[in-house]
Design goal:
Chain lengths: ~600, ~160
C-alpha cells in the first residue's frame, strides 16, 4: 500500500493513500468537527463543518471528503477556518427549529454540541426551518423535518446498511428535504422501523416514538400491576445511556433500577429467549424430519423470526418466502402472551389490570407489539415498548445513582435465564443457542465446540456460515445420522437481502438461517444509546459473550423455570398451548420498495 | 396493476440499467406529461430500486413532473430578461384565456400553466414552451393565438 506524508498544523503525519485529511488529523490527535460524516457510512461531504485550510489552495477543503495528498500543508485552526465553520453552523441552525429545552435529543445532539462549541448564534440568519407537520404515523419512528439539516446520514443508512431506501432526498437546492416515496407518512411505506436512521441522526429529526409518560402513568396507578421485561442487549447498552463506558454488563443494576422506578414485577425477556429456543429448535427438527424422513415438501431453509425489522422487511420484499420463517413469535411477544396468562394466574393477578412493558434495544419492537394479531392473551400482549434510551431517561428522571446501585436479581417464574438467552443480543447468538440445544436433543451430547462457544457463528462479518456434522444420534433421530447441518447468519438487512436472493435462485445450501435486522444484531439495535460505531458494537458484543460465560447454566433446555413452565403449563414444545400463545403468522405487504 | 404502455415502450427502448433511468422517465413524460405514482412504482420494480429513490430523482428535475399535468404543459420563462421584456403581461393574458392560476390545469385536462427558469431565449423574450415547442417574442395576443392553435390541434 502506498503512503502519503503531509502536515496537519505543522505536525508531520504519514497515512495510507486514499485516507482523508480527516483521517490524517485523527492520527495526530487533532479533532475536526463533523456532522454529515459517519464511520458506518460512505462520504457525503455536504455539511461542510469539517472545512480546513490548505496552504496554497484558494478554497477551504471539506476534510472528510478530500484525500490526503503528498506534501499537503493543512491548518485546522486558522481565523479563516474558525469563521467559516461558525457561519456554516449558523446557516445550519437557520434551517433547524432549535427547541433545545424540550427536544428529546437535547444533551445528546451533535448540532447542539457543535453550536455550543463555536458559540454560534441561532438567530444570525433568517429562520427557514421546514415546519411541515411532524410525522407521528408510525408507532415506532417520529420524523420531524423542522430539525433536519439534510446531512443524509439517514438516507445512507437506509440504503447502505439496510438496502431498503425508505428515505431519499427529494427536490433540490433550498427545497431539498428528506422524504419517503410521494412524501407518504412513515407508517405507509416500506420502512422496517429498524431505527438505524435514528441511531445516526445528528439532531432530533428522527427519534423513536417515546412512551415514557404512558409508562409513568401506569406505574403511578395503584390499581395496575406493571410487569416489565428486559431484552438481552439492553443490559450491555444501558450503562452508556447513563454515562458509563461501552461494554459494561449492568444486568444487576438494571434489575435494581427497575424496582426503584416502581415496576411491580421485574422479569426477563431472556427467559422467553430460552423458551424461543425450545420452540424454534423443535420446529427446526420437525421440519428436517418432514423433509428428510417423510419426504414432505417443507419450506427450508428455516429462518429465525425474532427481529421485527427483519419480519417487516421480508413481508415487503420477499412475501413468497414467508413460509420459510419460523412460526415462533419473538421472545418479547412470547413473554407478553405468557405474562397475562401463565404469570397472572400463578401470581393471582387480574390480567385486565396488568400493564406489560418491555425494555428493548429496538424501535421495531414498538411496531411489533402493536400488530393486531399480538393479543393471544385476550388483551394486547405487550402494552408499551421502551427503548434502552427511554429507560435511561426514566432512570435519570428518577434521580437514581445508577452506577453505584447494588446488583439485584429478577423476580421468579419468568426471570431465570441462561447464557444461551443472553447471546440472543448479538449476531449469531440465536443460532449458537439453538445449536447448543438442538444438537443435544438429537445426540444426547453437548455441541462439539470448546466450552460450548460456537466460534464460527460469532463476529461481525456481514454473512457467516457454518456446518455441524451430526453423528451417533439417538435412535428416534436416526434419519439425521451423518447429516451435515448447514447454517448461515446475516445481520444488516443488506446482507439478509443477499441470502434471500440465493434462496430465490434455488441456490441456498442452508437448513437454518438467522437474520437480525441491525448491524451487530440487537446490541446495535435502533433503540440503543447514541452514538454507534463498529468499535462500540464490538465492545457490546464482547460484553454479551462475557455475560454468557459467567452464567452457571448456558443451555436453554436446562433453565429450571423453562422446565417448570413445560411441566405446569405448556406441556411440550409445539403443543396446543404453544400454538395458541407462542406462534404466529405473517402478512404479505406491498413489495414495492 | 396493468402495465403502463408508455413505460413498457420506454424500457423496450432504453433497458433497465441504472443509467437508463432518466431516458425512461423522460420518455414517459413525453407521452403522458407527468409521472403517476403507479408508474414510479413500476419503474422502481423494473430497475430494482426503491420507489423513494425514483421519486427523489424525479423531483430533482423541473421537467419531470410528479403532479397531474394537462395534455399541453405551458412553461413561461420567469427569469430576468423575459421578466423585463413583459413576462407578467403574458402570464396575465394566459391566466385570463385559460381561467386558471399559475400551477393549475384547466378542468378539461388540456392545459397546465407553469413558470420556468431560463431556457436560453433571453435575446427573444418573452419566451414560453408548450410541451417541447418554443414560442418567442411573445405579446399577450400572440400567446392567446398559440393557445387557440393547440385547441385546434387537439380536435384533429
Amino acid at each position: 500500500m502506498d503512503n502519503v506524508t503531509l502536515t496537519i498544523n505543522d505536525i508531520k503525519v504519514t497515512v495510507e493513500k486514499g485516507a482523508t485529511i480527516l483521517d490524517a488529523a485523527k492520527k495526530v490527535g487533532v479533532r475536526i468537527p463533523t456532522l454529515c460524516h459517519h464511520e458506518d457510512l460512505c462520504v457525503a461531504g455536504n455539511c461542510r463543518v469539517c472545512v480546513v485550510e490548505q496552504k496554497g489552495a484558494r478554497a477551504l477543503q471539506a476534510s472528510c471528503a478530500v484525500p490526503a495528498a503528498e506534501g499537503m500543508q493543512i491548518y485546522t485552526n486558522t481565523k479563516k477556518v474558525r469563521e467559516a465553520r461558525k457561519t456554516i453552523i449558523e446557516l445550519l441552525l437557520s434551517e433547524h427549529a432549535g427547541e433545545c429545552t424540550s427536544c428529546y435529543r437535547s444533551g445528546n445532539c451533535e448540532l447542539q454540541a457543535i453550536a455550543q462549541e463555536y458559540l454560534a448564534d441561532g438567530d444570525a440568519f433568517i429562520d427557514v426551518a421546514d415546519m411541515t407537520e411532524i410525522d407521528i404515523s408510525s408507532p415506532a419512528i417520529v420524523k420531524d423535518d423542522s430539525k433536519c439539516i439534510k446531512c443524509t446520514r439517514c438516507v445512507r443508512t437506509c440504503a447502505e446498511l439496510q438496502g431498503v431506501s425508505a428515505l431519499w432526498a427529494i427536490n433540490k437546492g433550498n427545497h431539498t428535504k428528506i422524504s419517503t416515496f410521494m412524501s407518504k407518512p412513515m407508517h405507509y411505506v416500506v420502512c422496517t422501523n429498524c431505527g438505524q436512521c435514528i441511531n445516526r441522526c445528528p439532531t432530533g429529526a428522527l427519534t423513536e416514538r417515546n412512551y415514557i409518560q404512558d409508562v409513568w402513568s401506569a406505574i403511578d396507578d395503584p390499581e395496575v400491576h406493571v410487569v416489565v421485561q428486559t431484552a438481552p442487549a439492553v443490559r450491555v447498552g444501558l450503562g452508556e445511556a447513563l454515562g458509563m463506558e461501552p461494554g459494561r454488563v449492568v444486568t444487576g443494576k438494571m434489575a435494581a433500577a427497575l424496582r426503584k422506578l416502581g415496576f411491580d414485577s421485574v422479569l426477563d425477556t431472556d427467559f422467553s429467549a430460552d423458551l424461543t429456543i425450545m420452540e424454534e429448535g423443535t420446529e427446526l427438527l420437525v421440519r428436517l424430519k418432514e423433509a428428510l424422513a417423510e419426504k414432505k415438501n417443507v419450506a427450508l431453509p428455516m429462518m429465525t423470526s425474532c427481529s421485527p425489522g427483519w419480519i417487516k422487511f421480508i413481508e415487503h420484499q420477499y412475501p413468497e418466502l414467508l413460509d420459510n420463517l419460523s412460526t415462533c413469535k419473538s421472545p418479547q411477544q412470547m413473554f407478553g402472551a405468557l405474562a397475562k396468562t401463565y404469570y397472572a394466574k400463578k401470581k393471582g393477578v387480574d390480567p385486565s389490570k396488568m400493564i406489560s412493558v418491555s425494555i428493548m434495544p429496538c424501535t421495531a419492537k414498538k411496531f411489533e407489539a402493536a400488530r393486531p394479531e399480538m393479543n393471544s392473551s385476550g388483551f394486547q400482549d405487550v402494552d408499551y415498548v421502551l427503548t434502552t434510551r427511554e429507560l435511561g431517561h426514566m432512570i435519570r428522571q428518577a434521580g437514581i445513582d445508577f452506577e453505584n446501585l447494588q446488583d439485584e436479581k429478577f423476580d421468579t417464574i419468568m426471570g431465570e435465564s441462561t447464557g444461551a438467552a443472553v447471546i440472543f443480543g448479538a449476531t449469531g447468538g440465536v443460532m449458537e443457542a439453538a445449536l447448543r440445544t438442538a444438537y443435544e436433543i438429537v445426540t444426547g451430547r453437548e455441541v462439539p465446540f470448546a466450552n460450548l462457544n460456537i466460534e464460527p457463528v460469532r463476529g461481525m462479518d456481514g454473512i457467516k456460515s457454518a456446518a455441524v456434522k451430526i453423528e451417533k444420534v439417538k435412535p428416534e433421530w436416526s434419519f439425521l445420522e451423518g447429516a451435515e447441518l448447514k447454517v448461515a447468519i446475516a445481520h444488516g438487512l443488506v446482507n439478509a437481502d443477499k441470502l434471500m436472493k440465493e434462496i430465490e435462485a434455488g441456490k441456498s445450501p442452508y437448513h437454518f438461517i438467522e437474520i437480525m435486522a441491525c448491524p451487530g444484531g440487537c446490541i446495535g439495535g435502533g433503540g440503543q444509546p447514541i452514538p454507534t460505531s463498529p468499535e462500540i458494537r464490538k465492545k457490546r458484543a464482547e460484553a454479551i459473550y462475557v455475560a454468557d460465560s459467567e452464567l452457571p447454566i448456558r443451555k436453554s433446555h436446562e433453565n429450571p423455570e423453562i422446565q417448570m413452565i413445560y411441566k405446569d403449563f405448556l406441556h411440550e414444545p409445539l403443543g396446543h398451548h404453544s400454538h395458541e400463545l407462542l406462534h404466529t403468522h405473517y402478512t404479505p405487504r406491498r413489495n414495492v420498495k | 396493476m396493468t402495465p403502463n404502455k408508455a413505460f413498457s415502450e420506454a424500457i423496450n427502448k432504453h433497458g433497465v440499467s441504472r443509467d437508463s433511468l432518466l431516458p425512461v422517465l423522460q420518455y414517459v413524460i413525453s407521452k403522458e406529461q407527468w409521472l403517476k405514482e403507479e408508474t414510479m412504482e413500476e419503474v422502481a420494480k423494473a430497475f430494482g430500486m426503491s420507489a423513494a429513490e425514483v421519486y427523489g430523482v424525479a423531483t430533482f428535475y423541473s421537467f419531470l413532473d410528479t403532479e397531474p399535468r394537462g395534455r399541453y404543459v405551458i412553461r413561461v420563462c420567469r427569469t430576468i430578461s423575459c421578466d423585463m421584456a413583459g413576462k407578467k403581461e403574458i402570464i396575465e393574458s394566459l391566466k385570463n384565456e385559460l381561467r386558471v392560476k399559475t400551477g393549475e390545469t384547466t378542468p378539461d385536462g388540456m392545459f397546465t400553466l407553469l413558470e420556468t427558469n431560463c431556457m436560453g431565449w433571453c435575446h427573444k423574450g418573452p419566451a414560453m414552451l408548450v410541451n417541447d415547442d418554443v414560442f418567442t417574442e411573445l405579446t399577450p395576443d400572440k400567446a392567446v393565438a398559440v393557445i387557440q392553435e393547440y385547441r385546434e390541434k387537439s380536435k384533429q
